[in-house]
Write a structure and sequence with these properties.
2 copies of one chain form a homodimer.
Chain A: H1 5-14, E1 22-24, E2 31-47, H2 59-77, E3 80-90, H3 96-112, E4 116-124, E5 129-137, E6 153-157, H4 162-171, H5 178-185, H6 191-198, E7 205-209, H7 213-224, E8 227-231, H8 239-247, H9 252-258, E9 264-269, H10 274-283, E10 288-295, E11 299-304, E12 307-309
Parallel strand pairs in A: 3-4, 8-11
Antiparallel strand pairs in A: 1-2, 2-5, 3-5, 6-9, 6-10, 7-9, 8-10, 11-12
Helix pairs in contact in A: 1-3, 2-3, 2-6, 4-5
């Protein structure tokens, strides 16, 4: 690991006091951490031009989000985040002050989730990217994408469609739509909710909605070798999203079903636990909707007020298209 | 983590059988691994234009090297590599076959060091980069950069200067120099040597020589708050390096002292253990040189046959210049 000298001291200072489990933090070839049990690992990145454009968010927000997308993966397993390794690919002209501002965002987000930055790297790169590895403690019963069962209900915790509408509003310079813009710039990840859900062994499958509801549901269905039926009018529509769709001549269902980056949690569970889930999520002040059911027949089937609704050609965001 | 669908199955298959400690591998939001003890983490990358240019090595070699640079960090702590997370930033035109060839190189290198790929990510990026996170088991007595003591001898296991001369030979299309080119394209990392050295509690400090001998020695000195005196004629010069320097009118000491990417191990130890070290490394068939001594006085001081030799302006490779 190579964090160049003048930045190391600053980053070390800002990373705060290390817990006794961290035997060696930033500044050596490796970090050393004591642990016993089941660990979880994820690695996700934000890449200039692919995941964001300059000017659509501040550098601080970019740093926050780079960590948030990883925290959301941990949430989707029901885990507890512990440590992060942060790597930045930085164009030559990029100033140290800009790098620091990104790190400030990362440290801010890390603090909200009691996550310690234990190492990383900064390298020169023709294009800008942030790649973060997050290490967490697994839930006793970790929840995979592949555990869905036939006739499970499909629930979503959190609003959908806001971030994609927010991005559109920022791009076009639209006034207002604060909730939508905030959803894009400062996503709120549901680490606590994921952890609470994973404590219930009857939550069979879970994923975070990063690529779009239908695309992520499709991941669950494919990996569980099952299908799903969705009644699209079951989706809660945030008033600002309705307004945005109306004023901008947009199909609200497209945003709800295929818009990415909301970091809601999609999970499946038996219908007999519906009341339990309602209570659980209400206690956490989280919006909750049941959108449909897992089916033995493969494929995704949509209805609108009971009548068949066509499946969009593009289910969501494709990371590699 | 998002590895796009058609590639996932291929990568999953190639990653081989998972040990019982891996509860969940590639293909979900996180990987899950059971562990007890001290873990080490490192994160390093190869970036197009910064660390390599196309055509200077095959895609297979690039994959090998991307993992090797991380393995070398683990070697420098005396650890044992266990798991890796692999992330690729790929320009849109890049074919799946090319991606697979890079992965073949990664899997090959992983196999040589009993390392399992447990997850990762593939994202579109304007420029190409590979970022790898390596997770390993720490040595009981892990060796840091900051542990050097006054009057420790400074030892190097492995040849220096070969990779930089190899890169020059490849760039210029020079015939011959197979050893030099191999050093650049297929670096051999000293994981076993690092582990053997770390078992000796009297090996006080260690670092892998990735940025150049003087630069990495300087890291050890700065972090140990000490200095070093080096007799440059103590360096073993590989016959092909001598020939290369002579034929290409190059200063051989520049390659030896400031050339990067050799992945030799630099370590410090008390002089009374010199015989021990000689025996230990001879048994492993590894070249070993004692280059000088750690001094209470800060700074690096070079001599050539006892006479002062100027310190080069640039100590080695700067990742962020």
């Amino acid at each position: 690991m190579n964090l160049e000298s003048s930045l190391i001291t600053w980053i070390q200072k800002k990373s705060g006091k290390l817990s006794s489990a961290v035997k060696l933090g930033i500044g050596d070839d490796c970090a050393v951490v004591k642990f016993s049990g089941d660990l979880i690992f994820t690695k996700d990145s934000l890449v200039e031009g692919t995941h964001f454009k300059w000017g659509y968010q501040t550098l601080f927000q970019l740093g926050r989000k780079a960590l948030a997308v990883n925290l959301s993966d941990v949430a989707a397993m029901g885990g507890v985040p512990l440590y992060a390794l942060v790597e930045l690919g930085i164009p030559k002209k990029f100033s140290q002050e800009k790098i620091k501002e990104i790190y400030r965002g990362i440290f801010f987000e890390a603090k909200t989730q009691a996550t310690t930055i234990i190492g990383g790297n900064i390298v020169t790169s023709a294009c800008f990217w942030i790649s973060i590895t997050l290490i967490g403690k697994s839930a006793k019963h970790f929840v995979t994408r592949s555990g869905a069962r036939s006739h499970d209900l499909i629930g979503v915790a959190g609003y959908l469609g806001l971030a994609t509408a927010g991005l559109h509003s920022i791009k076009r310079g639209l006034k207002g739509y604060g909730v939508l813009k905030k959803a894009y710039q400062k996503p709120c990840v549901l680490v606590g909710v994921g952890s609470v859900l994973a404590q219930k062994r009857w939550v069979h499958a879970m994923i975070d909605v990063s690529d779009g509801f239908l695309k992520d549901l499709n991941h669950v269905c494919c990996q569980s070798k099952l299908g799903a039926q969705i009644e699209i009018t079951n989706l809660s529509i945030h008033p600002q999203l309705s307004l945005w769709a109306k004023k901008n001549n947009k199909n609200v269902f497209h945003a709800l079903l295929s818009g990415g980056e909301d970091y809601a949690l999609l999970f499946t569970f038996p219908s007999k636990h519906l009341k339990n889930i309602h209570k659980l999520l209400k206690n956490n002040g989280i919006l909750f909707n049941v959108l449909g059911e897992i089916t033995p027949k493969k494929g995704l089937f949509l209805t609108q007020k009971g009548k068949p609704h066509p499946l969009p050609k593009c289910l969501g965001y494709d990371h590699f298209s």
